[in-house]
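stuck on whats below:

***
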Amino acid sequence: MDIKSEKTRARLQAKQRRTEVHSSRVGPELIKHFPANQFRDAIIGGFWPLSGEIDILPLLNACYDAGHDLCLPCTPRVGNPLTFRDWTPSDTLKKGAFNTREPHPNKAEIYPNLVLMPLLAFTESGERLGYGGGFYDRTLDALRERGEVFACGVAYAGQKAASLPTDAHDERLDGILTETGFRNFT
């Protein structure tokens, strides 16, 4: 089986697993496990959770209240990295590609040094399985060329997989935050 087929099969399994572990009540648990001291001065790139994803909005609100600058991704044309734009919890968002919500184009572009990212599955060694568009891989590659950035997956603990199909362009996670804890892979 080729890598593309392996990833397609793994995505189907991961989506099913995420459906099984989904809970709308665990988002606030992320706040308890977020390593605030490690990321005291971080500019945080978050994401607006899609249906089925863990709700990171309570965490983003807590980070905003703690004085962090926040930004959300804007989905570009296929083949390009995401653009992060300034965001505060009171901002009105516009509908983006793939049913996302994103800041309006008039908001300032921001370069986060902590990227909280959605995923379908992760491993103990920091491998990440995304949705297949490669947006976060290209984004992390571009951000890492600019400087240091910490890539932190945010997911349900039950999304952990024993192994995942990966290839050379797949960017690894530096850490994972779940409703049960935080793990630093670096």
